[in-house]
C-alpha cells in the first residue's frame, strides 16, 4: 500500500503527518481528566457528536442519543460480561503471594487449561504448583512466548463458580478507586461471561434509554466479543502497519446477521456500540456484502486506509494515546477530524477512558 500523508490542524498551524506513523496518534491528556468514578445515572455522561460528512463537532448528553436515530436504524451491542479474572494464591513450597490473572480458556482435549498472567511470574517455573485461595491446586505448564503461561486447573473443575467466590473483577491500571462497585464495570445487558475488560462504550446505557430507542423503531442486535488484555496494549512499532494484533473470541448470532440484512434492505444505518462491535462485524463481512454469523476468532487490525463495509455510525469512548482503538476510530472518522475532536473534548474538560464520556460518530 502506498503511504498517504495528511495535515493535522493545531490551532492556526499545521504539521505534516503520516497515517502510519505512531506519533500521529499521540496526544497530551491532563491527568485530572482520567475518570476515576462513573457518573450517575449512567446516561448523564456527556456526548461529543462528530458529523463525518460536514466535519462539524457538537456537544450533547448521552440521554439525548435517541434524537440522533432514525426508525430504520439498527443498534448492535456487545453482551459480553467481565469475569472475576484476578485470583490469588501461593507457591506450593513457599509463602509469597502470587496473582493469577485469567486470560482465556484453552480449547483442546485436556480440560481445565487456561492462558494466564502470573505476577510475579519470574518466581514460578514450569512444573510448579500454585495453591489458590480455597486450597485449589493450579499446575503451571509452558510459556506462550508472549509473556503469558498455560496453567491447568483440576479436571472437571468449575472455574466460573470458583471465580465468582474467590475472584476479583479486573479494572484498568489507570483506575485507582478502591471503593468502586464491580457491577458498575458491567453493561446493563451483560450476560455472557468471558471478558477481562468491559466494552466501555456500552456502560452509558440504561434500561430506560434502551426502551426509548426501541420506541423510535430502532431494532437492537447482539454480538459477543470477549475483550482481552491486548485491547489496552499500546502499539510499540513506529510504523503501525508492523503491529500484530491480539486475537479475541467472537460470536455473531443468526438473528443479528438477519437484522443486518433487513437494515440494509430498509436503507437504515448500522450503529455499533463500541470498537468491539465494529471489530466483530467488519471481520465477518464477505465479498457479497453479507454478514456471516457464527463462532470465530479475529485478530483484525483497522487503521486509516481501511474502507468500512458493515458499520455506518459508531458510539465509542475516548481512548488511550497510541492505542489500536484510537487507530480504529481514526480509520472510521479520519485522523484529522478525530484528533481535532479530542482537542475539543480536552478544551471542554470531557472525562476520558473507561468511566469517561462518550463520542457519537455519524
Give a verbal description of the structure:
With 362 residues, the chain is an alpha+beta fold. The strands form 4 sheets. It has a 9-stranded mixed sheet with strand order 4-3-19-18-16-5-14-15-17, covered by helices on one side. A hairpin with a 6-residue loop joins strand 3 and strand 4. Helix 5 packs across helix 6. The N terminus is likely disordered.
**What is the 3D form?**
globular
N-to-C CA distance: 27 Å
Number of strands: 19
Mean pLDDT: 92
What is this entry, summarized?
This protein is of the alpha+beta class and 362 residues long. The protein has helices at residues 159-166, 207-215, 254-266, 275-283, 324-333, 335-347, and strands at 5-10, 13-18, 46-50, 57-61, 74-78, 80-82, 86-91, 97-105, 113-119, 129-132, 136-143, 149-152, 192-195, 219-225, 248-252, 270-273, 294-298, 313-317, 358-361.
Tags for this model:
alpha+beta; 6 helices; six-stranded antiparallel beta barrel; QueA-like; disordered N terminus; Thrombin, subunit H; 362 residues
Amino acid at each position: 500500500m502506498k503511504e498517504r500523508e495528511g495535515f493535522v490542524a493545531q490551532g492556526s498551524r499545521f504539521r505534516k503527518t503520516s497515517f502510519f506513523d505512531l506519533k500521529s496518534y499521540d496526544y497530551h491528556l491532563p491527568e485530572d481528566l482520567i475518570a476515576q468514578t462513573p457518573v450517575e445515572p449512567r446516561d448523564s455522561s456527556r456526548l461529543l457528536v462528530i458529523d463525518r460528512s460536514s466535519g462539524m463537532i457538537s456537544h450533547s448528553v448521552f440521554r439525548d442519543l435517541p434524537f440522533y436515530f432514525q426508525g430504520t436504524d439498527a443498534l448492535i451491542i456487545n453482551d459480553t460480561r467481565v469475569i472475576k479474572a484476578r485470583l490469588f494464591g501461593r507457591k506450593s513450597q513457599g509463602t509469597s503471594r502470587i496473582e493469577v490473572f485469567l486470560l482465556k480458556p484453552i480449547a483442546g482435549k485436556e480440560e481445565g487449561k487456561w492462558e494466564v498472567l502470573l505476577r510475579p511470574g519470574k518466581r514460578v517455573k514450569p512444573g510448579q504448583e500454585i495453591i489458590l485461595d480455597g486450597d485449589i491446586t493450579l499446575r503451571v505448564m509452558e510459556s506462550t512466548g508472549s509473556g503469558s503461561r498455560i496453567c491447568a486447573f483440576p479436571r472437571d473443575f468449575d472455574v466460573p463458580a470458583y471465580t465468582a467466590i474467590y475472584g476479583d473483577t479486573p479494572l484498568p491500571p489507570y483506575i485507582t478507586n478502591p471503593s468502586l462497585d464491580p457491577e458498575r464495570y458491567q453493561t446493563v445487558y451483560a450476560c455472557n461471561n468471558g471478558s477481562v475488560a468491559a466494552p466501555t462504550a456500552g456502560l452509558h446505557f440504561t434500561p430506560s434509554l434502551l426502551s426509548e430507542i426501541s420506541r423510535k423503531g430502532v431494532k437492537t442486535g447482539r454480538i459477543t466479543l470477549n475483550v482481552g488484555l491486548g485491547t489496552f496494549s499500546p502499539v510499540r512499532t513506529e510504523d503501525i502497519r508492523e503491529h500484530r494484533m491480539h486475537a479475541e473470541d467472537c460470536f455473531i448470532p443468526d438473528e443479528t446477521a438477519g437484522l443486518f440484512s433487513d437494515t440494509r434492505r430498509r436503507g437504515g444505518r448500522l450503529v455499533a456500540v463500541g470498537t468491539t462491535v465494529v471489530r466483530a462485524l467488519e471481520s465477518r463481512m464477505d465479498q457479497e456484502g453479507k454478514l456471516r454469523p457464527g463462532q470465530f476468532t479475529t485478530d483484525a487490525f483497522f487503521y486509516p486506509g481501511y474502507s468500512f463495509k458493515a458499520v455506518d455510525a459508531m458510539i465509542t469512548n475516548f481512548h488511550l494515546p497510541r492505542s489500536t482503538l484510537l487507530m480504529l476510530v481514526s480509520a472510521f472518522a479520519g485522523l484529522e477530524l478525530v484528533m481535532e475532536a479530542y482537542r475539543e473534548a480536552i478544551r471542554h474538560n470531557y472525562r476520558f477512558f473507561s468511566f469517561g464520556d462518550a463520542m457519537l460518530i455519524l
